[in-house]
Design goal:
heterodimer; A: mainly alpha; MetI-like fold; 2 domains; 72% helix; globular; B: 72% helix
Chain lengths: 287, 276
């Protein structure tokens, strides 16, 4: 068969949508970030070059949102990977039909949509009548979960772990199941203890899938929005306001479209930077 | 008890204890929906002292202010339409790029793949302005159509299609099948599993989307469940019983679907991690 342009016909519907809703907005969004563009104001959009980026560089709220986002990623991602690995190892040790049952138990919280999960945990976290303080009070502890800036982010992270651990656990479990039994048997014959097998054989073989899961969660972590918006609205004292929430508020509460577009490109740059660093670290590790 | 069964036993115990952390909050949601408000705002034990259906009656009995069934209908319509559209356009595009010899294909496919790295939020503001121009804001189209430009489905199916032996399609072509009928009669039946996975993934993504409906929708009767439920927090925040009953009701369809499609969902997710 010769290359025939008519074959593009099949791809045309997708490519039209791709151009209209991905490539177009990407270019338009970047152009937008170079303008002062305020919806609902009489000022006409004006070209300002990189002024929005300069403003973001100086904006204390950007620093705060970036700090809160980094704090979320730093607290949530390592805990997610470590706990998911522990859960996957546990699931892997339970053989047969029961494994499916436990796996479903771990996965069940993720069936709750973000607003439901958040409403539920807001109720748990309530200082006066939340169940957590009700259970802690008899031993003399009362935690201001959502009203103290020091506790709010850990509270968000705890809820996020509960809500999202099922996914990575299932993925890591399938990684563990893909390790050839013969490797482990050979190691046993050579006298390796279970602990040695775990750290010398299983973990090194799991490295690619661990990288995949870590990268996905770092990317997802930088995009955190729903649970923060629902549980604390970014408070108290903006201590949990993430970058995405700041972008959302800039665009749809203050209608500063140009500035919001610039902030989104900064978010993209941060994510790209972290992804690149992780791949680099991993490659060096391998060689 | 020998060593092996001891290890199995301790693993089961550990899983049992560990999974309490995941299951108990869900049970609390179910139980609280049957509690009167007085028991919800003052912890008096896990089980309701007085079982009541009042919360459900109030949630379902007030469709003017709380159009829960309307939100459910919106969520279902939008998620099914999105998943169907994504599956249709992505599979045609993926197959033509995997199989047909197209001039300029590597460049186009390269660009499509590159956008996999782009976080959705970066498109939020420009798409909002675009939808505003199109007059699609506050309509289901705002959530359905832009989703079909995503690259994930094309990438995933492309990977699958290049693994199918070419002989089948060549045989079909020799028998005089047109390209479209080759696709429909040879490729689609062979690709049920990855297509089902893509459908489920897209459906779940659309069902749980929060930022999209929050930004693009405006009126109460057009909301989807996640945004509709979120509204409770501002309007009915003191009425926990009501909020939790609505939350439980809106989780039921997901729970039932999960029981039915559990295997497909989980194997699809597991496979997504194995491919790099």
């Amino acid at each position: 068969m010769k290359p025939r342009a008519s074959g593009w016909m099949f791809a045309a519907p997708y490519l039209t949508l791709f151009t209209a809703f991905v490539i177009g907005p990407l270019i338009f969004g970047f152009a937008l970030s170079l303008f002062r563009w305020e919806l609902l104001s009489n000022v006409k959009p004006t070209f300002v070059g990189f002024e929005n980026y300069v403003e973001a560089y100086r904006d204390p709220y950007v620093h705060q949102a970036l700090g809160a986002t980094l704090r979320f990623v730093w607290m949530a991602v390592p805990a997610t990977i470590l706990l998911a690995l522990v859960i996957a190892t546990g699931l892997n040790a339970v053989a047969g039909k029961r494994q499916g049952f436990w796996r479903a138990c771990i996965y069940v919280p993720h069936l709750l949509t973000v607003s439901v999960a958040s409403i539920l945990w807001r109720w748990f976290y309530n200082k006066e009548f939340g169940i957590l303080n009700a259970l802690l009070r008899p031993i003399g502890i009362e935690i201001p979960w959502l009203s103290d800036p020091a506790w709010a982010m850990p509270a968000i992270v705890l809820m996020t772990l509960w809500w999202t651990l099922g996914g990575p656990s299932v993925i890591l479990l399938s990684g563990l199941q893909n390790i050839p039994v013969s490797y482990l048997e050979a190691a046993s014959l050579d006298g390796a203890t279970p602990v040695q097998r775990y750290f010398r054989i299983i973990l090194p073989l799991m490295r690619p899938i661990l990288l995949f899961v870590t990268v996905m969660h770092v990317i997802g972590g930088f995009q955190v929005f729903g649970q923060v918006y629902m549980i604390t609205r970014g408070g108290p004292e903006l201590s949990t306001r993430s970058l995405v929430q700041y972008i959302y508020e800039t665009a749809f509460n203050n209608y500063r479209m140009g500035y919001a577009a610039a902030l989104s490109w900064i978010l993209f740059a941060v994510i790209a930077l972290f992804t690149l660093v992780q791949f680099r670290l991993m490659r060096e590790d391998r060689s | 008890m020998n060593k092996k069964s001891l290890r199995l036993f301790s693993a089961e115990v550990a899983m049992g204890v560990g999974s309490l952390f995941f299951v108990i909050p869900c049970l609390l949601l179910v139980l609280a929906a049957f509690k009167p408000d007085s028991e919800i705002v003052k912890f008096q034990g896990f089980l309701p002292k007085q079982w009541t259906l009042a919360n459900f009656q109030e949630v379902l009995g007030n469709p003017e202010e709380i159009p829960l069934l309307r939100w459910l209908f919106n969520s279902i319509t939008i998620s099914v339409s999105t998943a169907t559209l994504v599956l249709t356009v992505s599979s045609l595009a993926a197959w033509s790029m995997a199989r047909l010899r197209l001039p300029g294909k590597p460049i186009v496919y390269g660009i499509v793949l590159a956008t996999l790295m782009v976080p959705g939020q970066i498109l939020l503001v420009p798409i909002y302005l675009l939808l505003n121009t199109l007059g699609w804001l506050d309509t289901p189209l705002a959530l359905i159509v832009p989703a079909a430009g995503g690259a994930f489905g094309v990438f995933m199916l492309h990977q699958f299609f290049i693994g199918i032996p070419k002989d089948l399609e060549e045989a079909a072509a020799l028998d005089g099948c047109s390209r479209l009928s080759t696709f429909m009669n040879v490729i689609v039946p062979l690709s049920r599993a990855p297509m089902a996975t893509l459908f489920i993934f897209t459906f779940v993504g659309s069902w749980n989307d929060f930022l999209g409906p929050l930004v693009f929708l405006d009126s109460l009767e057009r909301y989807t469940l996640p945004v509709g439920i979120a509204l409770f927090q501002t309007s009915y925040f003191t009425e926990y019983g009501l909020t939790l009953a609505a939350s439980l009701l809106c989780t039921l369809p997901t729970f039932i679907a999960f029981m039915i499609f559990q295997r497909q969902l989980i194997s699809g997710m597991a496979a997504s991690g194995l491919k790099e």
